[in-house]
Amino acid sequence: MPKVVFHHHGDTSTVVEADAGSNVMRAAVQNGVAGIVGECGGQAMCATCHVYVRESHLGALPPISEDEEEMLDCTAAPRDDRRSRLGCQLTLGEGLEEVEVDVPGAQL
Amino acid sequence: MTVDTTEARPIPAADWVTIPDLYEDPYPIYQRLRAQAPIHWVPAVNRYLVIGYEACHAIELDQQRFSADEAQSLMKRSMGHSMLRKDDPEHDVERKAYGGVLRPKAIKQRWEAVFDRNYATYAARLRAAGPGADLVAEFAAPYAAENLRVVLGFSNATQQDLQRWSQTLIDGTGNYADDPQVWAAAERSSREVDEAVDEMLPALRAEPDGSLLSVLATSGMPLDSVRANLKMTIGGGLNEPRDALATTVWALLAHPGQLASVRSAGRWSDAFEESIRWVAPISMYPREATRDTELCGMAIPRGARLGVVVGAANRDPGVFADPDAYDVDRPRKPHLAFGGGNHFCAGAWIARASVVSIALPRLFAQFPGLRLAPSRPATIGGWVFRGVLSLPVHWD
Question: Quick check: keyword S-adenosyl-L-methionine in the entry (chain B) (predicted)?
Answer without folding.
Answer: no
